[in-house]
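User: Second chain of the day. Same drill as before.
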Amino acid sequence: MNQRSQHQAIMFADVSGSSALYKRLGNAQAKAIIDEAVQFMTAITIVHEGTVVKTIGDEIMARFNESTQACEAAIAIQQRSIKEPDLKDLGIRIGIAYGDVLITTNDVFGDIVNDAAYVAHIARANQIVITQAIVDALENSLRRDCQMFDRINIKGETEKTLIYRLEWEHSGKDNRATMVMPIHDVTRFVDKFELKLVVNGQAISLLPEQTPLHIGRDPHKAQLLIENELASREHCHIEFRRGKYVLIDHSTNGTYVYVDEQAPIYLRREELPLQGQGYIGLGQTVVAATPWALHFKV
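Assistant: Same format as last time:
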């Protein structure tokens, strides 16, 4: 497993009160609202040069090289959330910590991750709560917006430490989410770079920062599990490279890619950029209605 140790700012952001939303509106409508919130939080993270590590229901976990990037992203998320009528009674709560973490291909580990999750749970709706290490690493213009919030024992620590609230409502700082694109275009930004996959009733939305996505029969190595005997244990993976999603085959039986009702393109230990929409057969030829046909749309 490839892994490296590196200083990162870790951010957790989640929709506050989502359980009540499901009870009030029902599953379908509530899920649509939550999905849209997760989508714009993801897009704003990418705009601010962050990496979305994972999405967990109504929450995203992200990492940034710099504390300032993380705080600017958090401010942009809060500023966007108050413009959403469906979120006005819910809000988003955010926690950020900074320090040395262990980065693997698909995840991040360490005490700093736990610290970020802990302060996120302390935050109330529409709040950004950050650790002392974040404040120490911030630019002066953002540090002025930090107010001491509490002195607590972060989980697992014996000594109390200061945590801060980052005031964002009146922040005069221009952030790159506004500079790079109008805030109402964030959803279109996601749509442009999103890869949608559907197989056997399971739907996945993939963004560049969430690749590589490993596909196969081995539940310990594949993020997208294909329980079909003709698929290899580590059949293929999809990565984002130079603006395109690329399918890379590692299999024994090969991969068949169908696009625009043409004859399938056969790959074996080869790669192919995915464009437009179509479907994929892992280890066998398929038709669109085959349960294990992997449908894609870029």
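The first helix runs from residue 18 to 25.

User: Great, on to the next one.
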